[in-house]
Amino acid sequence: MTNAIENIDHLEDLLSTPTAGVIEAVKRTSGDFIVLGVGGKMGPTLARMLRRAVDAAGTKQRVIGVSRFSTGELPAQLQAHGVETISCDLLDAEALDRLPEVPNVVYMAGMKFGTTGQQARTWAMNAFLPGMVARKFRRSRIVAFSTGNVYPLVPVHSGGATESDDPAPLGEYAQSCLGRERIFEHFSRQWQIPMALIRLNYAVEMRYGVLIDMAQRIARGEPSDLSMGCVNVIWQGDANAISIQAFDHVSSPPMVLNLTGPETLSVRWICEQLGKRMGKTPSFVGNESASAYLNNAALCQQLFGYPHVSVRQLIDWTAEWVNRGGTTHGKPTHFETRDGKY
């Protein structure tokens, strides 16, 4: 494993490198792939991983990325790596219906940032759109991204919420995400659509994620809030790989999967480890609460094995990236939020 990530090209190459499991899953999954909402934080590297897996498998499947493409350079970047692109506002029913019929759908569309003040659009994107997509792709297999925020805060010593625990979302964002799941589940049952619902919590890379949030605060000399005292994290490349392999497990009603790393991590410990590597002493405010948003990923590890990139490796990469001023997306996760208002 590399000691440092040299630049964005190196980062995106790592994030999009398919594992042997991904290549075998693509071989077993007949038909082309379409990634809805490819323009988000994970979409570009997931689509590239799919494309690289298809090439490695020699199966000639198409990989299509769909987004409004608010970032003008992204379509050309994806096309340069063999991913076809279609510009589409998915909430436009006529535009959605014009999309090609594709057997395998990765659903990544959604809204989180700025949901406070835009609650109506949040519900439209997170709960209404899934019904439109299910209708359009009712003859396809669908792997749909959700969030661990559909669970309540759980005791930090509980091992995290499991897939069999009842959801109890806090705040309109998390409620709308449970709405997304319920709508997909309804149409999966009605039309026998094989699906998987991926409750992700939290994917990290060098430009975005809870580790970058912590490291940037340390670099600025700002205190870290300990009220959300524990987190789960997983390398985004591992999250990409597991999500693609989930096509092996789609079912009706949908298979539900907690996707995260196996450890319950102390925020204080992470900050201390980052500080050592960055040559800085972190400071803190608040006290660790007895509860946190935590997912139990035992099923995920049983099906797909442990993540390929360890937490210590992620901390090493993050500290080095921030110390040399590496580019970030400039979108904090707000992981410390405990009232559900994003």
Topology:
Blueprint: H1 8-15, H2 20-28, E1 33-36, H3 43-57, E2 63-67, H4 74-80, E3 84-87, H5 93-98, E4 104-107, H6 119-136, E5 141-147, E6 154-155, H7 171-191, E7 195-200, E8 203-204, H8 210-220, E9 224-225, E10 230-231, E11 234-235, H9 236-245, E12 255-259, E13 265-266, H10 267-278, E14 284-285, E15 291-292, H11 298-304, H12 311-323
Explained architecture:
- This protein is an alpha/beta fold and 342 residues long.
- It has a domain of 232 residues: NAD(P)-binding Rossmann-like Domain (Rossmann fold), CATH 3.40.50.720.
- It contains twelve helices and 15 strands.
- The strands form five sheets. It has a seven-stranded parallel β-sheet, with helices on both faces. It has a two-stranded antiparallel ribbon with strand order 6-15.
- Helix 6 links the parallel strand 4 and strand 5.
- Helix 2 packs parallel to helix 9 and helix 6 packs parallel to helix 7.
- It starts with 7 loop residues before the first helix and ends in a 19-residue tail after the last helix.
- The model has no long low-confidence stretch (mean pLDDT 95).
According to DSSP, the number of beta strands is: 15
Order of strands across the widest beta sheet?
Answer: 3-2-1-4-5-7-12
**How far is the N terminus from the C terminus?**
35 Å
Overall geometry? globular
Poorly predicted segments? none
User: Helical percent range?
Assistant: 40-55%
Mean pLDDT: 95
The chain-level structural class is alpha/beta
What is the number of helices? 12
The percentage of residues in β strands lies in 5-15%
Specify the CATH class of the domain at 8-207 and 233-264.
Alpha Beta
| Rg measurement, Å | 19 Å
CATH superfamily of the domain at 8-207 and 233-264: NAD(P)-binding Rossmann-like Domain
Could you give the order of the helices and strands? HHEHEHEHEHEEHEEHEEEHEEHEEHH
Q: Which fold name corresponds to the CATH topology of the domain at 8-207 and 233-264? A: Rossmann fold
Major sheet attributes: 7 strands, parallel
User: Mind telling me which CATH architecture of the domain at 8-207 and 233-264 this is?
Assistant: 3-Layer(aba) Sandwich
